[in-house]
Amino acid sequence: LGGVDYQRASFRNTTTSQSQVESLIPLVTKRIGAVIEDLIEFGAVNFVVPGDFPKGCFPSYLTKFQSSNQSDYDPTTGCLVYHNSFSARHNKLLKKEIERIRKVHRHVSIRYADYFSTGIRMHRNPEKYGIVKATMNKACCGAGGPYNYDPAAVCSRVGAVACGNPKAYIIIKWDDHH
């Protein structure tokens, strides 16, 4: 929830700064809260609200924001530090919004699905999850390059090729960001 908003702002407009994308975080998290409250008004009482994935590990982000500065990368995951920090900030505000709603609507059950921590654990210990370390941060379906990602040849488009052993790849890396 919110991932597409951030990705479109980061990828579609070359003049958009990272601070402009960051300014979307409060808007997106408040909107998620507003949708939850709308659903409560309709009678919903049980929710699972997913947090953001570690975007800095997505092949699309790793390709677009490649850097020669090694300090831009987490040495334990190979992921982009800034973009994972961005996702963590989103998740922190989202959790605050969920807490606000819980206080107002005490009869409602809202569970937070922590995709971020799960994703980072998988990146730090891929073998534990049956993933080949060499495939980390690479798309299974893509068109070459260090992350097997080319925006002109994403999965199912001409030029994209699926990997020979999908089981060796982390599930969230099927293509550029799925």
From TrEMBL:
Taxonomic classification, please? Answer: Eukaryota, Viridiplantae, Streptophyta, Embryophyta, Tracheophyta
* Family membership: Belongs to the 'GDSL' lipolytic enzyme family.
Q: Which PANTHER family match?
A: OS05G0506800 PROTEIN (PTHR22835:SF683), ZINC FINGER FYVE DOMAIN CONTAINING PROTEIN (PTHR22835)
What this protein is called in its record is GDSL esterase/lipase
The species this protein belongs to is Linum tenue
